[in-house]
Design goal:
The structure holds two protein chains of two kinds.
Chain A (H helix, E strand, L loop, with lengths): L2 H29 L7 H17 L4 H26 L3 H19 L12 H21 L1 H11 L1 H6 L4 H25 L11 H11 L7 H14 L8 H13 L18
Chain B lengths: L1 H32 L13 H28 L7 H18 L4 H26 L3 H15 L15 H19 L1 H11 L1 H6 L4 H25 L6 H15 L6 H14 L2 H27 L2
Helix pairs in contact in B: 1-12, 2-6, 2-9, 2-10, 2-11, 3-4, 3-5, 3-9, 3-10, 4-5, 4-9, 6-7, 10-11, 10-12, 11-12
The chains are: A mainly alpha, B mainly alpha.
Chain lengths: 270, 301
């Protein structure tokens, strides 16, 4: 493998691995029956937190830990509002994304330039581990089937004596932690999107629907999207991943593959 | 009878609690992040009258966006990415100004058309494929934000202060009256409430959604053009988000749209852009939680 090929592969991995992790996080939340519109904010918060951890002398573990923790804390806040107070998941997640976006813009000036450009191999390993874990966990474990039921048949969960609230809160917190980890991965990889990954969260959320909310389909879809981003010349062609996501969404439709509990619209909230 | 009165009173209480919590959360966030103008108008800015005019000028585009998003919501369309249509309107207005020496009303028209174009694909896909327009409008907004060129200076005379405000409030009044008094308005609300039933009743659901969605995008594009021809450097996406915030807070009570937009306008006029955006988002979070809690109390669960 030539030097060029190695560099290109690293560039693709540096984006694909975090993208897959973010998709898996959103997938976990959505399979439990909550839309994850906080993804954009959580991803940016993980990115900023990890960047600050690196610039203050922390290593890769510290940066990843910061990302996961920030993500889980934001997920906890979202779960408290949505699951316990009863706000609409779409509006709440969107508000949280706006808040995090504004705060990250205010504070991202404090990150010194130059990504650490390390750990894309580690991120890829983490993404594959998370894929395997979610695939097996959702399909084969009692907890996984309870989580899927929380999305597909919430009434059955309540009738069987399980706590819908705790299941959904747990999925929201764990999923948001994965998204925070993805944000941290973006801060460490030398990818082009590391410059400030705005809009990547929305892209990931769309790609989860494109991947039919199946864990095993997340990494390949993420790699395809990352290939598009990594090899496009900057300029108008950079619009292509977004156009592609819209087109793919139109192809798969929306409501067919979505869990029962996700088939509501913003208007029906509250 | 008294049950109805109690229900109405409860609904008003929930709205008021939401607005109060929103104002509190927004104010606290702005204070926490540091709001330079909060102590009063800065010296040399024209005093309180100047501040009020400034707030109205900032509120006018916010009201236009909020109106569009609220109109979409009443038909069941979630135009969360209205910020993208605002950006499209701003780009179109400044591009048109670079091509011909058009007066600003024509530029507003160009912006409105661009906003309609920016929402066309999400709305068509929603009607045709059932695609989630909340997500597609956000994707297109992210794409446009990445494309937006550095802002070219517009060499033209901007509209006088308060002009766009007057325009926005008249458009809001017209939309409200049409929605209340016409059969079309009734049809829009019926479709929003239950699309399947509306289709069963013979309403042309797809066509109405196309028209409402196009209007929603057009209003956001208009706001973007108004920002672009305005005197101050435009904050396109931020204003779009502020409009979505206002709409999500009060779209069920349209008469509260102008005061809520004015509140956010004052925030935009006084605080730094990032601070104002954070405060508006915090206001939305606070308002949503307060309204949900009041709703829960009223249901007694």
């Amino acid at each position: 493998m030539t030097v060029f090929e190695t560099a290109a592969l690293a560039a693709v991995l540096a984006l694909a691995a975090p993208l897959a992790l973010a998709m898996l996080g959103a997938l976990l939340t959505e399979r439990a029956g909550l839309r994850q519109f906080g993804i954009e904010g959580i991803l940016l918060a993980g990115w900023l937190g990890a960047g600050l951890a690196i610039s203050s002398g922390g290593g890769m573990p510290a940066a990843l830990l910061t990302g996961v923790t920030l993500g889980a804390v934001l997920g906890l806040g979202q779960a408290m509002a949505v699951v316990w107070a009863g706000t609409g998941p779409i509006a709440t997640g969107f508000a949280m994304s706006l808040l995090a976006q504004a705060l990250v813009r205010l504070w991202s000036g404090s990150i010194p330039g130059g990504p650490a450009d390390a750990g894309s191999g580690a991120m890829a390993t983490l993404a594959l581990l998370a894929t395997a874990l979610l695939w097996w966990g959702l399909a084969r474990t009692p907890l996984g089937s309870a989580l899927r039921a929380a999305g597909d048949a919430p009434g059955a969960v309540v009738r069987s004596g399980l706590s819908l609230r705790w299941l959904r809160s747990g999925a929201m917190i764990a999923g948001s932690g994965l998204i925070g980890l993805a944000g941290a991965g973006l801060a460490m990889g030398g990818s082009r999107a590391a410059a400030m990954p705005e809009g990547l969260g929305w892209l990931a959320l769309a790609l989860v629907a494109v991947a039919a909310r199946h864990p095993a389909l997340c990494p390949p879809v993420a790699v395809i999207a990352a290939l598009m981003v990594a090899f496009l010349p900057s300029g108008p062609a950079m619009a292509l991943p977004w156009i592609g996501a819209v087109a793919a969404l139109a192809l798969v439709g929306w409501r067919g593959a979505a869990p029962q509990a996700l088939r509501h619209r913003l208007r029906d909230e509250g | 009878m008294s049950g109805t009165a109690w229900r109405r009173g409860g609904a008003a209480l929930s709205g008021l609690a939401g607005l109060a919590a929103a104002a509190l959360a927004g104010w606290a966030t702005a204070m926490l992040l540091g709001m330079p103008g909060a102590a009063g108008p800065a010296a040399g800015s024209g005093g309180w009258p100047g501040l009020v005019i400034d707030a109205v000028d900032h509120a006018a585009p916010v009201l236009l966006v909020a109106l569009g998003v609220a109109l979409g919501l009443s038909a069941g369309l979630s135009n969360l990415g209205a910020g993208g249509q605002v950006v499209a309107g701003g780009i179109a207005a400044s591009a048109a100004a670079g091509l011909v020496a058009a007066p600003w009303p024509l530029l507003l028209l160009a912006g409105g058309l661009a906003g309609m174009a920016a929402i066309a694909i999400p709305v068509v896909l929603r009607v045709w494929r059932g695609t989630d327009e909340a997500l597609t409008t956000l994707l297109i907004a992210a794409m446009l934000a990445a494309q937006a060129p550095p802002w070219p200076p517009l060499a033209l005379s901007p509209p006088a202060p308060l002009t766009v405000g007057a325009l926005a409030i008249s458009v809001a009044g017209a939309v409200w009256l049409l929605g209340r008094l016409t059969v079309a308005g009734l049809a829009v609300r019926a479709i929003g409430r239950d699309p399947a039933a509306a289709r069963g009743a013979g309403l042309p659901v797809g066509r109405v959604l196309l028209v409402v969605g196009t209007l929603s995008g057009g209003l956001a594009g208009l706001a973007g053009a108004a920002l672009a021809v305005g005197a101050s450097p435009p904050m396109l996406a931020g204003t779009g988000h502020a409009g979505v915030v206002v709409a999500l807070l009060v779209w069920r009570r349209p008469l509260l749209l102008p005061p809520a937009a004015l509140g956010v306008g004052a925030l935009l006029a006084m605080a730094a852009p990032g601070v104002a955006e954070a405060a508006a988002a915090a206001a939305l979070l606070g308002g949503l939680v307060a309204m949900a809690l009041v709703r829960r109390l009223r249901r007694g669960s």
